[in-house]
Amino acid sequence: MSAKNTHKPVVAICYDFDGTLSPKNMQEYNFIPSLSIPPQKFWEDAKDLAKKNGADPILSYMKLMLDKTIGTDICITRESFTAQGASVELFDGVPEWFDLVGGYGKEKGLQIEHYIISSGIKEMIEGTILHKKKVFKEIYACSYLYDKHGVATWPANVVNYTTKTQYLFRINKGIEDISDNESVNEFVPEQERRVPFSRMIYLGDGSTDIPCMKLVKNQGGQSIAVYNAKTRGNKAAALRLLHDGRVNFVAPADYRDGSEIHTYVKLALDKIAAAYEMYKMQTPLEKRNTPE
């Protein structure tokens, strides 16, 4: 997608999902309970599977989801995943957040786009109220291949802590097709990229987010570590990310009007809008990557 298709500077707000927009891992709301095993047991088994086989932890949990249904009446299909997504809970203010931030961005002359970059299951996210509200421009998450009966057979896409960063570059260059590995690696001058990193905001909560957090922060964007204030130890973990220089800001996962996250994101948008106004004053029209 060319930058010339946009008449306002685009701001990309990118989110992890589990622990960032939702209090728990999405599998813990419906899928794991249907197996009649404790969530902790499922994740321990996935970790053991990865360790014993020298395997990727995300691929391991995706395989375990398939394995655990063998011999049961549980059938993993695209439709069942989507149905399970309807039970996923969200942090306070999340359903209203996107209109809230989008409206503020519009006031500032910005075009706000929201992206998910998650190690969770894409089809489950597509079953949440957020997907039904069509708030995301793209959802980059793990997904399965399905046979002719619609049953999951093999991972189609895996998003782990390092592969997450490739989606930031896709957003940066405006390349949405995840099967296109050529265009995303082509050299594009910074001034011609659709969304400069300085116009990105990344929100995450855990270790799988660290590479993205650091990349966005180091390239002039804003990285925010969120934490569940109801869970002991989460704030301390988030503060370590701040202390280690991984993020710009730390806040509880409260997305309501006037919350810490809301206030900080508005300030970040103010900064982006002001920087763009300065950019316009300094740059001839024909050289701007966002024409009037």
Description:
This protein is globular. Helices cover 38% and strands 16% of the residues. The longest helix is centred in the last third of the chain and has 23 residues, at 260-282. With 292 residues, it is α/β, with parallel strands linked by helices. It has 11 helices and 7 strands. The model is unreliable at 1-6 (pLDDT under 50). A 7-stranded mixed β-sheet has the order 4-3-2-1-5-6-7, with helices on both faces.
The major beta sheet can be summarized as:
7 strands, mixed
Our count of helices gives: 11
Q: What do the pLDDT scores average to?
A: 92
CA-atom Rg in angstroms? 20 Å
Order of helices and strands: EHHHHHEHHEEHEHEHEH
What fraction, in percent, of the residue positions are helical? 25-40%
In what order do the strands lie side by side in the largest sheet?
4-3-2-1-5-6-7
Identify low-pLDDT runs: 1-6
3D shape: globular
SS strand fraction: 15-25%
Please state the structural category. alpha/beta
**Straight-line distance between termini:** 17 Å
Q: In total, how many beta strands?
A: 7
Secondary structure layout plus pairing:
Elements lengths: L9 E6 L15 H4 L4 H15 L3 H11 L10 H8 L8 H14 L3 E11 H4 L3 H4 L5 E9 L5 E6 L6 H10 L26 E5 L5 H9 L3 E6 L6 H10 L5 E4 L7 H23 L10
Parallel strand pairs: 1-2, 1-5, 2-3, 5-6, 6-7
Antiparallel strand pairs: 3-4
